Amino acid sequence: MSLLVVGLSHRSAPVSVLERAALSADAQVKLLQDTLAAEPATEGAVLATCNRIELYADVDKFHAGVAELSTLLAQHSGVGLEELTPHLYVHYEDRAVHHLFSVACGLDSMVVGEGQILGQIKDALATAQELHTAGRLLNDLFQQALRVGKRAHSETGIDRAGQSLVTFGLEQLSAGRAVEAWAKGKKALVIGAGSMSSLAAATLARAGVGEIVIANRTPDRAERLAEILSGGDDTDVAARAVPMDAVPAELTRADIAVSCTGATGLVLSADSVAAAVEGRTGSPVAVRDETPATDGQPAPAGIGTDDGCPLDLSAVQGATGFSVMGEAAVAGMDAATLEQHAAWVDKGTGTDERRDTRGTPDADAELITALAATAATVGRIPERRRPEPVSRVPRPTPVLALLDLAMPRDIDAAVHRLLGVRLVDIESLADASADAPMAADVDQVRRIVSDEVAAFGAAQRAAHITPTVVALRAMAADVVANEIARLDGRLPDLDDKQRGEIGQTVRRVVDKLLHAPTVRVKQLAAEPGGAGYADALRTLFDLDPETVAAVSRAENNTENAKNRGRA
């Protein structure tokens, strides 16, 4: 087994890079075809979701495989290799298996424990099977990953550690309220009719929204989803389908809008969202001023403009009760920075423009000198207090809540600045999920993953020696057949019963002689470092390498035929 995975995810790359590197369905197909055309790879599969892009391959050379797979990802994602490389991760053999099993269990998801990734892994396997790019290794790997993920969800409480990205996004939109209470009776617009959009629509229906409108470029899919929602036994929601050109009008009526399409450009611009809110409220939409407010107080003269000050003056200007020369200003500084700050203060001693109303420059300078001496001893001044938070203009209660689950994004990020609109997108979900609590069950899932990785590795190593064992037994059968034929020539008077008894006896002797070593060699081969036992068997019994390879090809063809049936 020479399994290699090269990829990037929300853990290794900023959303801006993931967004640009997102692969369309056609690009994934071309990537798989080019992967198999590349010299180091014999199998390939792509796992592409809204927050990860991973290329799996069976390679015969590690370094050449990493270089080739990285280059292919860069070519098909449209992000230059030099820019993409710092965000790529590489896993090989058992580490690659561990990674996929962790992904399948939701341990590597943006929302820990979410189960939607299992469907995405299943889709990745089905695509590879349809394109005949998944051989025995990747078929076994992905099918086992699905089983491990299901086991984790059935045997542990990992579901309590997180929810689907849709549920987590709706929780962020509801801003602390129960989603059911927040969504009850609202009108929802869902843009797109794929798996993520369908999940969002179903989640909104269960949450109690009064109406769901589905907009999709393919009307049949939107109508089908609307029929399913309207006919659901566990929901009571009115659902209807509309064409994409009806989105602006429907957005004017909507309280909630969820978008997840495969579009390469924006589906909703900031101007279109502003127009929808204006059409609903009758008033122009104000744009949030991103400049920190100062409570009407002018910044002290010279603040933010002087050279040599190590403080981020723009971050504290106008803060109440905060002196740029006091203890709060230097809290946390190391000795070198304190020395620089003290020099800046000394340079301004005696000038009115650097005086703070709560202390004199002389007093502050003495304090800084004392703090600098402490820093020289202990290395850093412990932080004691922060400047009071800068007051900001309160935002009005949102009249439109937007959830963007697409990658690349469907909704213009500039919508964040529109007052009266709340936007949650992949980037804000990533920030919010960093503080999400981890359930105790996560440790149990990690143990399951470790056990399953060991079992998978043992099974693959044992399977690696199977063609050699089969070839050995085939050679033994040929030897028996040849010896029986020679016996017939020497003893032509034997009847069929006698000939049968002799043949059966000889075969039993051969089977008994081969049984113990072949069973033992399989056990040894399953252990780490056991790959060499197959070579030893071939050498000891002078087995023809082409015969072993033919057995392996036959097994792979049989396995691939079964897998095509599953797909």
Overview of this structure, please?
- Mean pLDDT is 79; it is low at 291-306, 311-325, 349-359, 381-388 and 563-567.
- The strands form two sheets. The chain has a six-stranded parallel sheet with strand order 7-6-5-8-9-10, with helices on both faces.
- The protein has helices at residues 15-21, 25-37, 62-77, 81-84, 94-104, 116-130, 136-155, 165-174, 179-183, 195-207, 219-230, 247-253, 270-281, 313-316, 327-330, 335-348, 361-378, 426-433, 441-490, 496-526, 532-540, 545-566; strands spanning 3-9, 41-49, 52-59, 89-92, 187-191, 211-215, 238-242, 256-259, 400-404, 421-424.
- It is elongated, with a radius of gyration of 33 Å.
- Helix 16 (335-348) runs antiparallel to helix 17 (361-378) and helix 19 (441-490) packs across helix 22.
- The chain is α/β, with parallel strands linked by helices and 567 residues long.
- Strand 6 (211-215), helix 11 (219-230) and strand 7 form a beta-alpha-beta unit.
Distance between the termini: 23 Å
Strand content: 5-15%
**In angstroms, what is the radius of gyration?**
33 Å
**What are the low-pLDDT stretches, counting only 5+ consecutive residues below 50?**
291-306, 311-325, 349-359, 381-388, 563-567
Helix/strand structural class: alpha/beta
Q: Summarize model confidence as the mean pLDDT.
A: 79
Q: What's the number of helices?
A: 22
Taken from the alpha-carbon principal axes, the silhouette is elongated
Into which percent range does the helicity of residues fall? 40-55%
Name the strands of the widest sheet in spatial order: 7-6-5-8-9-10
Q: Tally of extended strands?
A: 10
Largest sheet: number of strands, sense, barrel closure: 6 strands, parallel
